Amino acid sequence: MLSTRSIAIHFLALRVDLYWYGALYFYRKSSVGRFFGTMMNMDLLQKKINWKIVCVLCVALVLMLSAVIFFWFLNKPSQLKNISSERKQTKSEQQIISDDQLKEKIGQMIMVGFRGTKVSEKSDIYNEIKDVKIGGVVLFDYDTPTKSYPRNIVSPEQTKNLISDLQKYSETPLFVAIDAEGGAVNRLKKEYGFSIIASAQKMGQDKTLNTVRAESKKLAAELKTAGFNMNLAPVVDVNVNPKNPIIGAVERSFSSNPEEVFNQSKVFIKNHLLDNIITVEKHFPGQGSATTDSHKTAVDVTNTYKEDELIPYKKLNDEGLLDVVMVAHVINKNIDENYPATMSSAFIQNILRKQIRFGGVVMSDDMQMAAITENYSFEDAIIKSINAGTDIISFLNNSPNGYDEKIAYKVRDVIFNAVKDKKIDEKRIEDSYSRIINLKKKFEIIAPALNETKLEKTDTLK
Fold it and tell me: Per DSSP, which regions of 43-191 are E strands?
């Protein structure tokens, strides 16, 4: 049986013959044809054509062509239906893949705290790593909800094994972070077998920088040995208010002089970089002038904030030493009348991104602090923080309000549903995910692809 293509070819060949014979006929009948036929003695024009045969062929051709077209249209609806069904199925499959990929990228934006000095397949954190694919964890020695020890840290060896197991379970290696500033805020205490680290205030009192150099070098080495890759330090708050209950009064600031804060923190950061430890500078835009504690209540610095508190951030960024900045839950109505810095694009986009020109990762302070939970709903706080420009959103699960074993799931679902409902632009997720993955590659937490250039840190250490 001839295929449609073969019939079409035969049809075109026959139609050419018919046109040729028709042209010859009319040419011969015309005066021009007779003139040129006489002049040129063209034998072809003198041929006798049996026009009855030509007519029969034409009728046969029309019937054949009509039959082909009829049978083609008869089968076309089912063919189109199959194609349409295949396209719908493909689109549906792509949508499922897209949702899974979106959830995975959202997971990288979530950092949580958890309970346990060991991890197994029965642990809450195991499920959050496997199902939510969280981007990072923070370790504590003290469990605030139960007011008891231990939470995650018992000894150097145990801590090292815990971190190793956490990383083993994670498809994308985790940020494993800790608050190790020195002084009162250091989860790696002497009684667990770790070194005593001087407070930032004591380091800052030595203007030769020898103390901060020695202490930060010792601290970074211990972090590396244990397996940490991120330190939620240094505090670069300027000690505007020495009686500040959360900064000045507990010796967490290097100095009341912003230039000295810069000099001290620069050394602190560089020693961490030498051991491939990410530092997180905090608490942007500056919490040194506060009179209250954001863990317990809202913090309003509208009347106490000094513009000089931005100097350490600006100078550290100019030297390429800022990789992650933690944003505080402080309110400054001169900048944003309605929201704290963690939920405000005026702080994150206008000041941190545009004014300071910071291009790294933005991390929120713990979103379970009272400054947030007492004033905003769970969903609203997350959505506004992401839209403001937060890349890593922290739920450390270590507040007096209790422990939530499903916290990572809940945060992921709020962000995912907000994207689906067009409350968060998907590009925000893509941008944050890209910054996070690039940071992990820069610090060799995950290996760069073979065709990618390794991001160097050596220039900042000169």
Answer: 110-113, 136-139, 175-178, 180-182, 185-186
Model confidence pLDDT, tens digit, residues 381-435:
999 999 999 999 999 999 999 999 999 999 999 999 999 999 999 999 999 999 9
Strand partners, 105: none
Owning domain of residue 450: 109-461
Q: Is beta strand 330-331 parallel, antiparallel or unpaired with respect to 299-300?
A: parallel
DSSP class per residue in 152-199: S-S-HHHHHHHHHHHHHH-SSPPEEEE-EEETTEESS-GGGTPPP---
**Structural domain count of the chain:** 2
Residue 102 within a domain:
no
Angstrom distance (rounded) from CA 344 to CA 295: 19
Inform me whether the pLDDT recorded for 23 exceeds 60. Answer: no
- Tell me, yes or no, whether 338 lies in a domain: yes
| Same domain (yes/no): 64, 120 | no
Does residue 56 share a domain with residue 175? no
Whether residue 210 is found in the same domain as residue 353? yes
Q: In the predicted model, what is the mean pLDDT of residues 169-184?
A: 97
* Per-position b or e across 291-320, b if 16+ CB within 10 A of its CB: ebbbbeebbbbeeebeebbbbbbebbbeee
Gyration radius of the chain over CA positions: 36
The amino acid at residue 378 is F
Q: Both 172 and 319 in a single domain?
A: yes
Same domain, 13 and 141: no
> Within this chain, do residues 63 and 199 fall inside the same structural domain, yes or no?
no
- Whole-model pTM over 0.70: yes
Look-up of token digits 């029965």: 122
